[in-house]
Write a structure and sequence with these properties.
The complex is a heterodimer. By secondary structure, chain A is mainly β. In chain A, strands 14, 17, 21, 22, 23, 24, 25, 28 and 29 form a nine-stranded mixed sheet that branches. In chain A, strands 1, 3, 4, 7, 9 and 10 form a six-stranded mixed sheet that branches. In chain A, strand 18 and strand 19 form a beta hairpin. The radius of gyration of chain A is 25 Å and the shape is globular. Chain A starts with 8 loop residues before the first strand and ends with a strand. Chain B folds into two domains: about 500 residues, Methanol Dehydrogenase, Chain A (8 Propeller); about 140 residues, Immunoglobulin-like (Sandwich), CATH 2.60.40.420. Chain B contains three helices and 48 strands. In chain B, strand 26 and strand 27 form a beta hairpin. Classes of the chains: A mainly beta, B mainly beta. At the A-B interface, strand 6, strand 7, strand 14, strand 15 and strand 16 of A face strand 14, strand 39, strand 41, strand 43 and strand 48 of B.
């Protein structure tokens, strides 16, 4: 694998003591770094794994004998005399791989065992190995209303853009209530088309009985409305309608379906869905954070076929230091999404998604 | 936590059985059901569930490792090389006539919610059989006596009612734990001794997006070797991204990343749509302990029959892939069918063995495919040795043509589906049990138009008729058993059997090859000559392979029977049957090989609006006013003016669910003597208050007096709307008739609030 040189990942151990702490604080800032690995195109001739090397240091001194875990995977070997550990990284998937220290009891810096306090501090450290698209032509301008406009081009290691946004599926949302009108938590709603062997299963309902689901919203033969079998399950129980009774949904639309479970011994009442335009689209987006919080954009575009995107932010953020994050998202959009088209920002995430690389590039808005 | 869960589970199970038994007793008493009914109307057995023989069960020690003894059948294929070969020699060609059934276990005796059908491959450790059923129940059975020691079920089987394929093919054993993969994409570890859940993790924790929401599912038996658990998943037909992943026995990831078989979403040949994908590894892995290599097989690309939307060879689908056991790094891969367009796959586990070829000892890996061909490669390098050896009598699959019928042999069921083969080291033969099938495939005339609205998980396979095509006229699928001389790469012998082979083969060191058939017959062949030496009718279709073990000094042959609905009209039972010398020689009646359906005189049609209730002598009735009407048309169940009629036996209680779907009107119902009446003739027989548009009301009454009545709208606006309602003699069946003359009887209790999943 000669296609890249691994950027050293450094998890810095903070130590007690003003002088050392000061130095380490400075180093810590230095290593909150740009993306370590440029996302690569997938290659069928390869397993698409590369050896990434991380380092554990104490004030610039390598720490050996430290065991680390990445996304819950225990790296087989502890850090070596150079403080290095090796992690096989899939660099074809956008992602953030969180590194934690799991065992520092045998840790040594310059041959000296770490103190208990140092070990404890080391166990509290974490950092991440990121895989992200490179951002070319990054610019921050202002529109006529004085709002910051961030633009750039997301590119993989071969210079190509990310996969263009695609229609993933439709959306089904609603609530599940019991016969007394109280929310049912822990249930799942499933839908099944009648003319093909396909079904969707919702998320588990929350304390308010709310669920969301992917939803096919079309029948093989194209009829409209489309009949679906709907079930609600919780634990080993299944609630469904009498045989041959269907819920009818508008074709190629999303829908809301509120379900009320029946009292014991009664059949479920047929609910009426409320259909609405829009669908769930999947694609890569670039976003902006200020002080670690997502800035909800005024407008944003999906990357076009070359990866070009723009994000327009509220004017009040003008001049503030910010950073870029990237994520592959499934976003609901009321209008059709295409490469380069506007994102329906009402669905924009309120926090950086868990596995999304962040702090990729620092910018001033 | 584990104890509370277990106690709660047991209590629920008991309640469920009692409720079902009570309901059934009522329906049987009414003459509505016979013991030949299907669905949830299944008869509740009254006989003892197990015919046991002897002895107290040996218990596996908590410190048990994966070092299995020769008498064990420790994993899916017995050994990591998946050759399904037993070193046991107590059962021989000479004493086969004394081989008889020693016990049978009907798993539905223990929990009637277990669906019928069996594809599980038992494993046996220290004389304890671990075997699964559909819905991922795990049973531990004393291998000598047949006593069920414990059984475990997932908490959330309710959601499993959605799954068309709800089977499970077995467990792995390691580190004193039994590992099972659940349909909804979790791994569960269970204490082998107590049957208590140790841990359960969602696979998506380590394999991004590997969830049921994205159409993945698990039916696979995992493999555990050197305390590393290897898994894949199903979902190729729905466009998922195939993978193989490894776990430690504490269910933390053992590899840093899954091995993905095909490109990420939207990349490479998957760039034409989110519905393209596949290449799943949905059968057990094979492991070479000498090189720490894992061999996995991969399934078809999808959409299955639309190659136009995934142009090119679709690399690493329909392939054999070699990976490093400890890291998941790829060593080599070989594709058997580039650009598959017939729904073939490389599915069965690969076999790993040593064989002399041209006088030179080679370590090889071989596999047979759904296409019905056999392939051998150098185990270390992947270099082909023998390729495309035809195992089927007819093997022909021209390219599909949009809008035109194309006859193919075999059908997309194969060939060699998941059915595992066996290698006999003495003869050097690989024995296969295959399906000789055919299908007519008509690709839709305009694939581009068909694909325009395809979305994630879309399983419109691209055919104009039938999900997987349809059978040619006058053709009947059948089966065959083939021995391959692996030194020469030629077929050594072949035997034809009446039904497709779906279950797999197991050989023994005494020169026997055991094969279960779709006709329910377990057969033993002479491995070298192919002569059939013994057969035993188990009574149910077979779609699983035999496991051969020793317990208490005695050799046993265990096989799960019940079959699969996709072959020989199986899916008829869920049983484990075990055979040994001096067992009962009395065979079962052969299962009917015909479409499932009503027994004589039971059913006319599936029910509509009306169905049996969960209690004896109860009926549920669904009445919808102004169905989906913005104008409040006042109809009831889309019929008007008494066009629909319902009759109920005297003394039965009727539970009415009333929905008013009129957008802008209130409505209500009452059981009265004539339309327009408001005073109910039976106590409780009316909605308690007017029901506003979109509202729901429930009421119940007992039909205590024979006579002709109506269930009428109480709305002044719809006063003339009603359903005829007759209370008939107690010996008459409930019935519902529509204006067009269709009538519907009651078949059981599906579709009720709070039914326990299954059936």
């Amino acid at each position: 694998m000669a296609r890249r040189v691994g950027v050293v990942f450094v998890a810095v151990l903070a130590v007690v003591g003003s002088a050392a702490a000061g130095r380490n604080a400075a180093r810590r800032l230095a290593v909150v770094a740009p993306p370590a690995y440029a996302l690569q195109a997938w290659n069928p001739a390869s397993d698409n794994l590369i050896r990434s090397v991380g380092t554990i240091e104490l004030g610039g001194t390598p720490v050996s004998g430290v065991r680390v875990s990445v996304d819950g995977y225990a790296v087989p070997k502890p850090t070596d005399a150079n403080g290095h550990f090796t992690y096989l990284l899939d660099d074809t998937l956008l992602g953030r791989h969180v590194v934690t220290v799991t065992d520092a009891s045998s840790a040594r810096a310059a041959g000296v065992p770490l103190t208990k306090a140092q070990q404890s501090q080391l166990l509290a450290e974490h950092a991440s190995i990121d895989v992200a698209y490179g951002v070319r032509d990054l610019k921050v301008t202002r529109d006529s209303a004085g709002r910051p406009v961030v633009s750039g081009r997301l590119v993989n290691g071969s210079g190509g853009g990310p996969p263009v946004v695609a229609l993933l599926t439709y959306q089904l949302t609603g609530t599940v209530l019991d016969a007394n009108g109280k929310p049912v938590q822990g249930a799942q709603v499933s839908t099944r088309t009648e003319d093909r062997d396909y079904w969707t299963v919702s998320s588990v309902t929350d304390a308010q009985g709310r669920y969301t689901s992917l939803f096919t919203a079309s029948a093989e033969e194209g009829g409209n409305p489309v009949p679906f079998t709907v079930r609600v399950s919780k634990g080993e129980l299944v609630y469904q309608f009498l045989p041959q009774e269907f819920v009818w949904f508008q074709r190629l639309q999303s829908a809301r379906l509120d379900i009320r479970l029946p009292p014991a011994n009664y059949a479920m009442a047929l609910p009426r869905p409320t259909s609405y335009p829009g669908a769930v689209y999947t694609g890569v987006v670039a976003g902006v954070s200020v002080d670690g919080s997502v800035v909800h954009p005024v407008a944003a575009t999906w990357p076009d076929a070359t990866g070009r995107f723009t994000i327009t932010l509220p004017a009040r953020f003008a001049g503030k230091p910010a950073s870029i994050w990237e994520a592959k998202l499934n976003l609901f959009s009321r209008t059709e999404a295409r490469a380069g088209s506007a994102v329906d920002v009402t669905s924009w995430p309120s926090a950086v998604p868990d596995r999304a690389p962040r702090n990729l590039l620092k910018i001033s808005l | 936590m584990g104890g509370r869960r277990s106690a709660r589970r047991k209590r629920l199970a008991v309640v469920a059985v009692l409720a079902a038994a009570g309901a059934l007793a009522g329906l049987l008493a009414s003459g509505l059901l016979s013991k030949s009914t299907h669905g949830t109307g299944e008869a509740i057995p009254t006989t003892a569930p197990v015919v046991s023989t002897t002895a107290k069960a040996p218990q596996p020690s908590a410190a048990e490792t994966t070092s299995f003894s020769p008498g064990d059948w420790g994993m899916y294929g017995n050994t990591p090389d998946e050759i399904r070969h037993s070193p046991l020699t107590q059962i021989t060609k000479q004493n086969l006539n004394d081989l008889g059934r020693v016990f049978s276990i009907d798993f539905r005796h223990y929990d009637s919610t277990i669906p019928k059908g069996e594809q599980s491959f038992p494993i046996v450790v220290n004389g304890i059989i671990y075997v699964t059923t559909a819905y991922d129940y795990v049973f531990a059975v004393d291998g000598s006596s047949g006593k069920v020691l414990w059984h475990w079920k997932p908490d959330d089987t309710g959601v499993f009612a959605n799954y068309g394929v709800n089977t499970n093919r077995g467990v792995a054993y390691c580190d004193g734990k039994v590992f099972v993969l659940t349909l909804d994409m979790k791994i569960a570890s269970i204490d082998a001794e107590s049957g208590k859940l140790v841990k359960e993790v969602p696979i998506s924790d380590a394999v991004p997006d590997a969830t049921q929401q994205y159409s993945y599912s698990e039916t696979q038996a995992p493999i555990c070797f050197r305390n590393i658990l290897i898994i894949g998943a199903s979902g190729s037909d729905y466009g998922v991204r195939g993978f193989t992943m490894a776990y430690n026995t504490d269910l933390t990831p053992a590899w840093s990343s899954p091995f993905w078989t095909v490109p990420p979403d939207g990349e490479g040949w998957r760039r034409f749509g989110v519905y393209t994908g596949g290449g799943t590894n949905w059968n057990p892995a094979t492991i070479d302990p000498t090189t720490n290599t894992v061999y996995v097989t991969t399934a078809n690309p999808s959409p299955i029959f639309d190659p136009q939307v995934r142009p090119g060879p679709d690399p690493r689908t329909d392939s054999l892939v070699a990976l490093d056991l400890f890291t998941g790094r790829m060593k080599w891969w070989q594709q058997q069918i580039p650009g598959d367009q017939w729904g073939y796959s490389t599915v069965q586990p690969a076999l790993l063995y040593d064989v002399r070829i041209g006088g030179v000892k080679r370590r090889v890996v071989s596999v047979a495919t759904k296409e019905g061909t056999w392939w051998m490669y150098d185990a270390r390098t992947g270099a082909p040795i023998y390729q495309h050896l035809k195992l089927l009598n007819q093997l022909e699959h021209p390219a599909l043509q949009p809008g035109k019928p194309v006859l193919v042999y075999p059908s997309s069921l194969g060939g060699l589906n998941y059915s595992p083969s066996s290698f006999d080291p003495t003869t050097g033969y690989v024995i296969n049990s295959q399906a000789e099938t055919a299908s007519v495939l008509i690709e839709k005339a305009n694939p581009t138009a068909v694909n325009k609205y395809k979305i994630k998980g879309d399983v419109d396979n691209g055919l104009a008729a039938g999900t997987f095509g349809y059978g040619p006229k006058d053709w009947h699928d059948y089966g065959s058993v083939t021995a391959i001389n692996t030194s020469l790469g030629t077929v050594a012998w072949k035997q034809v059997v009446p039904e497709p082979g779906r279950g797999g083969v197991t050989t023994t060191a005494s020169g026997l090859a055991f094969v279960g058939g779709g006709d329910g017959v377990l057969r033993a062949y002479d491995t070298y000559t192919g002569n059939p030496l013994w057969s035993f009718q188990t009574g149910f279709q077979i779609a699983a392979g035999p496991s051969i073990y020793e317990a208490g000094g005695k050799e046993y042959v265990a096989i799960a029977v019940g079959g699969t609905a996709t072959s020989s009209y199986g899916g008829t039972a869920t049983q484990l049957q075990v055979f040994a010398l001096n067992g009962d020689l009395k065979q079962s009646l052969a299962p009917p090989i015909r479409p499932p359906g009503a027994g004589p005189g039971v059913l006319r049609a599936p029910p509509l609006y009306l169905n049996g209730g969960p209690q004896p002598h109860t009926i549920t009735l669904q009445l919808v006013a102004s169905q989906s009407s913005a104008t409040c048309d006042g109809t009831i169940d889309a019929s008007s003016h008494g066009g629909m009629s319902v009759s109920v036996p005297k003394g039965w209680t009727v539970y009415v669910t009333f929905s008013n779907q009129g957008a802008t009107c209130t409505d209500g119902l009452a059981v009265v003597n004539a339309p327009g009446g408001r005073t109910p003739v039976f106590s409780g027989g009316a909605t308690a208050a007017p029901v506003s548009g979109g509202g729901v009301a429930y009421f119940k009454f007992t039909a205590s007096t024979e006579g002709k009545y109506v269930i009428a709208s109480t709305s002044s606006r719809s006063a003339k709307e009603y359903v005829r309602f007759d209370v008939v003699g107690a010996d008459q069946p409930p019935e519902l008739s529509l204006p067009n003359g269709e009538s519907f009887a009651v078949i059981g209790r599906p579709g009720l609030g709070g039914s326990v999943a299954g059936g």
